[in-house]
Design a protein that fits this description.
Blueprint (H helix, E strand, L loop, with lengths): L4 H16 L3 E7 L9 E7 L2 H17 L6 E3 L8 E5 L3 E7 H7 L1 H4 L4 E2 L2 H4 L1
Parallel strand pairs: 2-5
Antiparallel strand pairs: 1-2, 1-6, 3-4, 4-5
Helix pairs in contact: 1-2
């Protein structure tokens, strides 16, 4: 079920939910051809813990309404919420504060992945 229409649609929903909450530097990486972990990583930054929580809540709500179930989440119980991972199966959402995003640098680690353009996601 790699790179199918459903996983692209899910990535678009996550992207829109993050955009709605003014997430910073939203990137969608197509990792389906280079990994069995997922089809897409959606990566975004927030400016503070409250924004990160609002971003995560928005993604969860919008994905649920569209029929995508959150399989696992990490980082939400953390007091400072500097990183949140949301696993929807074929789409994994990573939310960071600026410093942690630079430290983990997923875009560099997954440098072989194709980055979807904003036009492809709208």
């Amino acid at each position: 079920m790699k790179n199918n229409k459903d996983s692209l649609e899910a990535a678009k929903i996550a992207y829109a939910a993050l955009d709605d909450k003014l997430a910073i530097d939203i990137r969608v990486l197509d990792i389906g051809k280079i990994s069995t972990l997922a089809d897409y990583f959606v990566i975004a930054s927030g400016s503070n813990p409250n924004q990160l929580k609002a971003m995560a809540d928005s993604v969860d709500e919008n994905m649920y309404k569209a029929g995508y179930i959150l399989k696992h989440t990490e980082g939400m119980q953390s007091h400072n919420r500097s990183w949140v991972l949301m696993d929807f199966g074929d789409v994994v959402v990573h939310l960071f504060n600026k410093e942690d995003r630079e430290f983990y640098d997923l875009e560099r680690i997954w440098g072989d992945a194709r980055v979807l353009s904003d036009e492809e996601l709208k």
